[in-house]
Amino acid sequence: MATTNWTLPDHPTLPKGKTVAVVVLDGWGEASPDQYNCIHVAQTPVTDSLKNGAPEKWRLVKAHGTAVGLPSDDDMGNSEVGHNALGAGRIFAQGAKLVDAALASGKIWEDEGFNYIKESFDKGTLHLIGLLSDGGVHSRLDQVQLIVKGASERGAKRIRLHILTDGRDVLDGSSVGFVETIEKDLAQLREQGVDARIASGGGRMYVTMDRYENDWSVVKRGWDAQVLGEAPYKFPNALEAVKTLRAEPKANDQYLPPFVIVDESGKSVGPIVDGDAVVTFNFRADRMVMLAKALEFPDFDKFDRVRVPKIKYAGMLQYDGELKLPSKYLVSPPLIERTSGEYLVKNGVRTFACSETVKFGHVTFFWNGNRSGYFDETREEYVEIPSDSGITFNEQPKMKALEIAEKTRDAILSGKFDQVRINLPNGDMVGHTGDIEATVVACKAADEAVKMVLDAVEQVGGIYLVTADHGNAEDMVKRNKAGEPMLDKSGSIQILTSHTLQPVPVAIGGPGLHPGVRFRSDIQTPGLANVAATVMNLHGFQAPADYETTLIEVVDK
Q: Where is the BPG-independent PGAM N-terminal domain (predicted)?
């Protein structure tokens, strides 16, 4: 392999040495103004002024689908692929796309990961754990169906599913249909002599799918049901479980309590035991890492596992490249090398990155090509502000926006950094709760944080680039084909808690910006991956030739 030439050529006109602030507003898309557009409803004078100021300094870019490496333009973007694209400057096949390709070619069955778990098929059970949903953000039902079918054709005689219901990336209540679909498949397998059934379940936000070590009790609830076969609710089958638990007051798919399926004698039909194989089938990493640690780490101490079965475990993908977690996986991850962060650090750009826990990994790990740690700790500082835990984010919608902004302001004014890079999570994390009033508060808080950062940029004669990773807060209602809000049976609007397919803004400015800089109008469909070359230009460098082209040009003024 050729060695990388890390030296970036100088930009012909843009100077080096200006402090550049890169601000990512998480979940901040651009949509028509109405009462369900929380960004529009909120008082956001700073981001409004960016949009309504110089038109050649504000534009929209694509943040979903093929622009971020996802299979189709029906796929909403997410923070992981968004930050990969922002940092890498190129588009890489992502999550679902990688899995689709491996399933279509049959490569998944030939690779090391599957052959490793296959060793357990003769005497043990194959357990599949993950989100049962067609949302395409964390997992996809059709892939799970193909894994079940493929494993049964290749020697799995006993299969147990441990399902997590969604209601966040898809409609609340859709869990019932997904369970019916997979139960049909399992019934057909049982007719063919394969002992295949659902063994446990629960709602994704209450069982298993916590992230960033926010609340280990979520993972423990899952462990107890999946591994120990213990849960507060016991049912003869999963359809009855989901329907009964959904009938409770205030119940929704995201927060269904854990349940286990039991036989006539009341015994769990599928605890994980010695000699079994386990696959976590989510392709998206962030909400599988904690369970992966519990399954794989011998010295795990976050909760009492009670019993640690000797299993063969593989993830759908590797969820953390630095921790090599899990060590076995069915599909290999995109190798993202030569990210913009690494180039800039190697060209002397001193870098500060900051967010709170829930998005800290996005401005570090995902930005840097799915890689943990520093490229050069003498030139980088990463600051994580602990997120609120034990509450839903609509209870404290301002989150840690102010603290992130204060740390960033101090970093800018210290003169120690050439780039500061931050993520303000409010629009996304509060938007996911579906609480419109709280999301309005969240957007205002993010806007105030932007003001603090831009004021500091002003003081040091720097440059800013403000963008987002995908949409969310700009549209909080489900819409019909005509774009009108959809109503449920009781006549209430159907709240949208998921990301959107909307484009996101990119704004540039600051006293250090060369007066001739403006956005180009000749790029057909610019996306998030075009931002990296743009940022390199603002630092006075030209981007590598294979990067997506810069969004800016310099004209004589």
A: 99-320
Q: Please check whether residue 88 is in contact with residue 532, taking contact to mean a CB–CB distance below 8 angstroms.
A: yes
499 belongs to an annotated ligand binding site: yes
DSSP, collapsed to helix, strand or coil, labels residue 552 as strand
DSSP state of 395: G
Give which of 382, 376, 380 is closest to 353, Cα–Cα: 382
Predicted confidence at residue 497, as pLDDT, reads 85
Count other C-beta atoms under 10 Å from residue 119's C-beta. 13
CA 385 to chain centre: 19
Ordered by start, the domain boundaries in the chain are 20-92+336-478+486-554, 96-315
Unique residue bearing structure tokens 């006293």: 511
Q: Looking at the predicted structure, is the pLDDT value of residue 2 above 70?
A: no
Residues 522-537: b if buried by 16+ CB within 10 A, e if exposed? eeeebbbbbbbbbbbb
Is 133 annotated as contributing to ligand binding? no
CATH topology of domain 20-92+336-478+486-554: Alkaline Phosphatase, subunit A (3.40.720)
- Give mean pLDDT, residues 47-67: 95
CATH fold for domain 96-315: 3.40.1450
- Is 107 among the annotated ligand-binding positions? no
Would the annotation count 428 as a binding residue?
yes
pLDDT digits (tens, 9 = 90+) for 301-342: 999 999 999 999 999 998 876 577 999 999 976 769 999 999
- Residues identified as active-site: 79
Query: Collapsing DSSP states into helix, strand and coil, what is residue 38?
Result: helix
CA 64 – CA 476 distance, rounded (Å): 17
